[in-house]
Amino acid sequence: MALAISLASPAGAFEIFGLKFFESTDADVEVIDPLNYTVTLTVEPAPGNEDGSLEDALRTASGLIGDEEKPVSGSLGLLSKAKTDRKRLVAALFEQARYDGLVDVFIEGRDITTLQPDATFSARPVPVTIRVRPGPKYTLGRIAVSSGGIPVDPAEYGLEAGGDAGSAKVLEAEAKMFNALREDGRPFVAVTGRDIIADAATDRLEYQAALDPGPRVPFGDVYVEGAKDVDPGFIAYMTGLKAGEVFSPQELADARARLLKLGVFSSVTVKEGKAQDPDGSLPVQVEVGERKFGYYGVGATYSNTEGAGANGYVGYRNLFGRAESLRFDASVSRIGATAVSGEARETDGFDYSSSLVFKKPGVLGPDSVYIGSLEIKKEQPLAYDRQSYAATSGVEYEIDRQQTLNVTLRGEYEEITDYLGTRDYFIASLPITYTYDGRNNELNPTDGFYFQALAEPSYGFNTSTPFVKTRLDGRAYLSLTESDRLILAGRLGYGTIFGADVADIPNDRRFFAGGGGSVRGYEFQSVGPYFPGNVPPGSGFNDRFTDTPTGGLSLFEGSVEARIGITENIQVVPFLDFGTVSDELVPDFSNFKLGAGVGARYLTSFGPIRIDVGIPLDPGPRDAGYQIYAGIGQAF
């Protein structure tokens, strides 16, 4: 795979595939008549600022301080920046509930309020002094909110006597009261009056507001604009908005999310009408911009042990005018692969896979999608060789924004070779997956919880073997700082297969552990019971699979890691993984395999770029001294 890298000096930036990393955002900005300056900030002592938090807030708000290393454009540029800074610092004092505070800014000892626009400065760099007299810290005094007879308790939103009187807190509370009335089905709520009085005699901030809630209004008809090839009636149906239901801003937001999820629009706007229809309902206006429906892509990989690989896909997003999609994927790998003695095993030829996937949204309501597929696959992982042909038919249903249920009927024929020889399986299964996703970000979560439960009843027709595979997975994330510079993350997985012995269950349905998505540091599938390393002569066992894992009936695995922010975009991530696989129904908790290591993350707008180096602390016969993993997104 070719990789184009261009280096930039002296900033140390570099570019890959058109993406620039470690580059200053102002690297290419040219300043006319550059003028350098220095800044001194003096904050007079004030009650309530013993911890210095006020000075920290002022330094953060000051553009003069934040940009001190950057020149301004001449004397006029410095004077303009100083006047803007004074307003920012006064606003910062208000946010800290210091309404009597004074801010003076001096350039070369002269107060900026007395300087003319054509003033010039002789010193180089130009000295700038900021003097802040914070004044007393105010608290909330009398609170009075009228809302047309609709109960609104200001205390629920932080507005109560003696409370925080910071300007941002007060306005935030007002916005929450406003939004609460809108969420109550009142689209025409308005703030009709507001009086905020800072009483210097008592150091109290009095707040009085009048909210006109307006009536509760039902949704009316949905009108669609911008649709050319996608059926407008289908678009209105997929919003999920029903005439007669009470207005809700959240329902509008959910409607927009549903339409974007269809994949056929480049832009979607969903908004309520400006006025009610004669019948009292509120119409909804949907504006869409259609994207190109056809798409394709190709890619390539190379590894000194796995050989070369290539993949491609082609698809169409709007087959019959209702966002039906069809996508064909194909890949080939292990081209020219070589085995590393003592780690991998000898393989025969290359691996390949292909799939044809059809999706039709809206089959069981706007929050559902039908998914059917045809799949062909040949793979040669560590534990077995497998060739399979499968067909699936199922529905994914979004219960709400966090919960999803997926039910699929799967029929599969597969031929598997392992240490016992080659066997055929014809299996029907019904995997049912429930997912709860409470993470705040899918690729880079810093808070929340994720849970998934799988139950997959299966029946082998040619082997007359029924069995049920179950698995539970949970992940949790906790940020220990407001800046998300220290995040603790952990995951646990537990699985059991009921109803049959290991030898009667197809190898690909058994549990394995080890690898980048499991116990890092270990070879893929290498954690668990092994086939013995010495094959007796004439035993009939396939000696290509000596010292290979057999898989098991039960699994327990997990990970803990600390994501430590070194800079705004760079994280260092030490981690510890653990896992065990057993051929019994209950995992052998005394036989853990531990993997430890450290990783690095570069945070981008599309997700973290990740690289991990894992070391197996108890390596088996197929494990190397370390493993390197790379990808986009956190490890879990």
Tag the structure with descriptive keywords.
single chain, 636 residues, mainly beta, Ubiquitin-like (UB roll), 4-stranded mixed beta sheet, 11% helix
Commentary on this structure:
The chain has helices spanning 53-61, 63-66, 74-95, 167-183, 232-238, 249-261, and strands at residues 5-7, 14-16, 19-21, 34-35, 37-43, 72-73, 102-107, 110-111, 126-133, 139-146, 190-199, 204-212, 219-225, 265-272, 282-290, 294-303, 307-316, 325-335, 351-361, 368-379, 385-398, 403-418, 421-429, 432-437, 448-460, 465-479, 486-498, 554-565, 570-582, 593-604, 607-616, 627-632. The chain is mainly beta and 636 residues long. The protein has four domains: 31-133, no CATH class; 139-212, membrane protein fhac (Ubiquitin-like (UB roll), Roll); 218-290, membrane protein fhac (Ubiquitin-like (UB roll), Roll); 382-632, Porin (Beta Barrel), CATH 2.40.160.50. Strand 2 and strand 3 form a beta hairpin. The longest helix is centred in the first third of the chain and has 22 residues, at 74-95. The chain is globular. Residues 1-27 have low confidence and may be disordered.
CATH architecture annotation name of the largest domain: Beta Barrel
Shape descriptor: globular
Q: CATH class of the largest domain, anyone?
A: Mainly Beta
User: In DSSP terms, counting alpha (H) and pi (I) runs of 4 or more, how many helices?
Assistant: 6
The count of β-strands is: 32
Whole-number tally of structural domains: 4
CATH-assigned homologous superfamily of the largest domain? membrane protein fhac: a member of the omp85/tpsb transporter family
Cα Rg: 32 Å
**Low-pLDDT residue intervals, each spanning 5 or more residues:** 1-27
Largest sheet: 17 strands, antiparallel
Portion in strands: 35-45%
**Helical percent range?**
10-25%
Average pLDDT rating = 91
Distance between the termini: 27 Å
What class would the helix/strand composition place it in? mainly beta
CATH topology of the largest domain: Porin
